[in-house]
Amino acid sequence: MIARYFLKLRVLIYSLSARPYLRSLLVNAGWLMADRLLRVLLGVFIGAWVARYLGPENYGELAYVVAFLSIFQALSALSLEGVLVRDVAQGIDRAGRLIGTALYLRLAASVFACVAACVIVYLLRPGDTRCLLMVGMLGIGMLFQSTDVIEIWLQSQMKGGLSVTAKALAYSFASVVKVFLIVYEAPVWAFAFVLLLDAILAAWALVFAYQRYPTPSYWLWDDLVARSMLREAFPFLLASMAMVALARIDQVLLRQLSGDHALGVYSTALPFSSVSQMLAVAAFVSLLPRISSLRLSDELMYFRRLQQCLALFLWAGVLIAGIVFLLADQFLSILLGEAYADSVSILKIHVFSNIFYFLGLARNLATVADRRPLIALWSALTGLMVNVVALLILVPRFGGVGAAWAAVVASACSSFLVQSLLDPNVFRMQLRAFNLLRLLKA
């Protein structure tokens, strides 16, 4: 019986790849997956080496800076990605105005976010010049990340190979620099500088890639486009900041309640839990243009594809969580050593939050295509409130393990349970996604 289901799955994959309209989609998704896979491999192994070199205390400080800046990075991005991908896919003749306006908006937001981050960290940690220096370097990096609008253009036109190659070269070079920093025993702030270097190189590489496949028209600023983008993206921006806070508040509160050492141990487990999220995001970005187009052209096929995406994302999360749970002991002991022995139990718990993260990401395909940003906002706010309450209850007693349990509970609430109130139709589709046999018979 199992063999028959696997045969049906192979037939399903073959039939999808044989269709002309999906072939370019699959190729583009393949490029995105390759980029994320490269980042996963380099991030896991180089990141583990960095953690062993810095030790829990210094690594915890670096993790705190990255977590703190993440909220401001969400602000600098303005959550224009989903709106921009959809609008470019639905009207390529307006690409120049759309991309140009989005770039100027992101540059302005990045300047504001950088200044705000530096001011706030100065007020929170007066006299901590090293922390302020690292926040400043990462803040400057947000300016260069504004060029990510180029990647959105290339992805919307199924030219993902160009942007993937460009950014992969930049990321690989930055990873090599990290190795040299370890060999020559560089201080912790130097590793923050590498993150800035990666942003600079990636921006330059994207500009180079864009020259090979530019938009049909020049980039221009358009007041009407800017107002329309900001008006529609604002709820997504609030949701994005809430989601980033949801993902990072555990590290911030853990440091406040338990110190840098506990945060360092906890933070080393997170990359092994969240690396698969990069692959899921790559799939989301690749699928969004097609799902958005179907929403306008074929409603029946739209719901059919959405149901398939919900099931595929959910069971991919289950599979990855199971594999990580089984291999966590051996893998972390080899890569991190005895100093991070407590990371194993944290990872085994935290990885199950990915199941609901994947399911929520697939749900966001409908949220963007249906232009219902308030669903994303209320989902994220619900998860954030649940997470904060759970952290305050569990962290003082259980430390990093308590933070891991809080992440699982918050993810389940924000990505799944709350949908029963916000969008009952999608919630029913999420429930059907748990039926693996339905997916194999599709």
TrEMBL record:
The chain crosses the membrane at residues 21-50, 62-83, 103-125, 131-154, 166-184, 190-210, 230-249, 269-288, 309-328, 340-362, 374-395, 401-422. GO terms for cellular component: membrane. InterPro entries: Polysacc_synth, PolySynth_Transporter. It is found in: Membrane. Keywords: Membrane, Transmembrane, Transmembrane helix. It is a multi-pass membrane protein. CDD domains: MATE_Wzx_like. Its main location: membrane. This is Flippase. It comes from Candidatus Dactylopiibacterium carminicum.
